[in-house]
Amino acid sequence: MWPFFALLLGLVVGSFLNVVIHRLPKGESIVFPPSRCPACGHRLAPWDLVPVFSYLALRGRCRYCHSPISPRYPLVEALTGLLFALAALFYPPSPQAFLTFAFLALLVALSFIDLDTLELPDSLTYGLLFLGLLSAYLLSFPRPFAEALDGALIAAGVLGLVAGYGGLFLRRFRETRAEVPVGPHQVHMAALFGALLGPGVGMALAFLTWALSGRTGKPVVLPDRITLPLLPLAWILAPYLGADLLSTLKGSFLAAGGLALAGGLYWAFKPIHEEGEETDPVAMGYGDVKLLGALGAWLGLYSLLALFLGVFAGALVGLAFRQRKIPFGPYLALGGGVTFFFGETLWRAYLAWLGL
Ligand SMILES: [Zn+2]
């Protein structure tokens, strides 16, 4: 009975996710007004909104104007229903099961919004992050709190630095203007000093330049041309300076992730700029970085396996369809979902295959 109940709940939640996916990027209210046909504007009755079944009964057309309805709607509902049923096979009725439902629902919403808009809304990525941390704190689920926090920071730090090096190579080592008061420059700086002096000092120094930039209105931060090339050098030299490589790497990623997630939160709460102001409205970007950070709160260091699976799946699809600009969010979400249920199994199978 429980998996069947989960399936039905998932269908209903999926129907709600369709509204979220449609309205959240436009800044419209999710609760009001009631659903209307996008073609004729006719208000939809409850029997038009029964997940999946209404679509099948109406043969994919609006009851009032007969224009075709996107198959995306029943697809999102069916997908959410099946994911909830899968979760119910892993967890008996419990707070853990409902937290897993929330995790999966957020990933579905994020994936489809990214497909539509190439953006991942901060409300959902940070919602996923804080729900994961809260769940870890209160229930040690799915990971103990210390592991969740480390996982979030390290995952965000790894992808933030990948983005940093990617950007530097794509720009052919030209320096970009640093964002005021905080941007990727602080993330790269935190990584460098985190490697040399530990994550606490790395973060503190980067926060100091953030405060100075905010105070002076000018970027006060080391250029990428210094921080990014020195960082691998610090990693290589660490063992010769009496530090071990693993803690040096960890120091970099923790500090970089801390700055990436804190900086992203600052921009998320910053009111939209007035016309004529010269700042980029999507300051920092980092949607994927924040999503992977959020996955880290749920998966701990297994989030790096989710990243690997996401890159792998994204590359396969990119090659298959010869797409240039692909949204990475859906693949990260897919990697995150697979890792949530099967991560440890996959990892053990991999180690066994290596003969370890
Ligand atoms: Zn209609």
UniProtKB/TrEMBL annotation:
Record keywords: Cell inner membrane, Cell membrane, Hydrolase, Membrane, Methyltransferase, Multifunctional enzyme, Protease, Transferase, Transmembrane, Transmembrane helix
**Membrane topology qualifier:** Multi-pass membrane protein
Domain named Prepilin type IV endopeptidase peptidase is located at 102-167, 221-319
What's the Enzyme Commission number for this chain?
2.1.1.-, 3.4.23.43
User: Any transmembrane segments, and where?
Assistant: 6-24, 73-91, 97-115, 127-145, 151-170, 191-214, 226-246, 253-269, 289-319, 331-350
- Recorded catalytic activity of this chain's protein: Typically cleaves a -Gly-|-Phe- bond to release an N-terminal, basic peptide of 5-8 residues from type IV prepilin, and then N-methylates the new N-terminal amino group, the methyl donor being S-adenosyl-L-methionine
Q: Which InterPro entries match?
A: Peptidase_A24A_bac, Prepilin_IV_endopep_pep, Prepilin_pept_A24_N, Prepilin_peptidase/N-MTase
Which compartment or compartments is the protein found in?
Cell inner membrane; Cell membrane
- Domain Prepilin peptidase A24 N-terminal intervals: 8-89
Whether Membrane counts among this entry's keywords is yes
Family, similarity comment: Belongs to the peptidase A24 family.
Q: Which PANTHER family match?
A: PREPILIN LEADER PEPTIDASE_N-METHYLTRANSFERASE-RELATED, TYPE 4 PREPILIN-LIKE PROTEINS LEADER PEPTIDE-PROCESSING ENZYME
Q: What does this protein do?
A: Plays an essential role in type IV pili and type II pseudopili formation by proteolytically removing the leader sequence from substrate proteins and subsequently monomethylating the alpha-amino group of the newly exposed N-terminal phenylalanine.
UniProt protein name: Prepilin leader peptidase/N-methyltransferase
Source organism per entry reads Thermus brevis
